[in-house]
Amino acid sequence: KAGVTQTPRYLIKTRGQQVTLSCSPISGHRSVSWYQQTPGQGLQFLFEYFSETQRNKGNFPGRFSGRQFSNSRSEMNVSTLELGDSALYLCASSSGPQKDEQYFGPGTRLTVT
Amino acid sequence: EDQVTQSPEALRLQEGESSSLNCSYTVSGLRGLFWYRQDPGKGPEFLFTLYSAGEEKEKERLKATLTKKESFLHITAPKPEDSATYLCAVMNSGYSTLTFGKGTMLLVSP
B46 to chain A, minimum CA–CA distance in Å? Predict the structure, then answer.
């Protein structure tokens, strides 16, 4: 079974721009969660989607948004990029809400200059 | 607010030298405690889920245990390929998101 895939793997953007990251979950998984990982803060939860509905949202500004499509693929968008948004963005999938084990993709490394 | 604290931040072992990593947590209602392994430049790899105090799980040289306040990841006779960052996370019974600790970076020297 193929794992979670994320595209692109690496991205360099300029302050003020916006970016869209994509995540394809494991086949059959319907829940997708996004996390931001930085050296200072570690892994922090951004949001969770299940059946195209946002179920939970972390403590991030409104510049961070996401959506999920009917095939369970998910995208997250960051508008008006700031230097502090430089991070590894990780997507994780599970078979459903409270279906405990979450399986992570390789991440997208975003660098904002 | 759920909190997870891992110690030590970094650990250096000789091959074959057993040790333990600690994960202390506070959560209003624990649904599960998770251990992940993360290699540089990669996403976390799932290792274990523990649900209740007293539970233990093993995988090769790794054994995870759980009490009401903390979890331990015991590494027996580690090998250099066990070098990685080990992450602990909790899931609150009220929602299905993970709260992570900052990890323990393990380096095993031959």
Answer: 7
**B48-102: pLDDT as tens digits:** 999 999 999 999 999 999 999 999 999 999 999 999 999 999 998 887 789 999 9
Indicate the residue of B43, B49, B103 with minimum beta-carbon distance to A104. B43
Beta strand extents in B1-110 (DSSP E only): 3-7, 10-14, 19-26, 30-38, 45-50, 56-59, 62-66, 70-75, 84-92, 98-100, 104-109
Measured distance CA(A53)–CA(A65) in Å, rounded: 12
- Which stretches within A54-100 are classed as H helix? none
Instruction: Give the model's confidence band at B45: pLDDT under 50 very low, under 70 low, under 90 confident, else very high.
Output: very high
Whether residue A39 lies within 8 A of chain B, CB to CB, comes out as no
How many other CB atoms are there within 10 angstroms of residue A103's CB atom?
Answer: 20
> Residues of A with CB below 8 A from B103's CB?
42
Position A99 scores a pLDDT of 61
Banded model confidence at residue A98, pLDDT cuts 50, 70, 90? low
Looking at the complex, report in whole angstroms how far the Cα of residue B39 sits from the nearest Cα belonging to chain A: 10
Other Cβ atoms closer than 10 A to A46: 22
| pLDDT at position A39 | 92
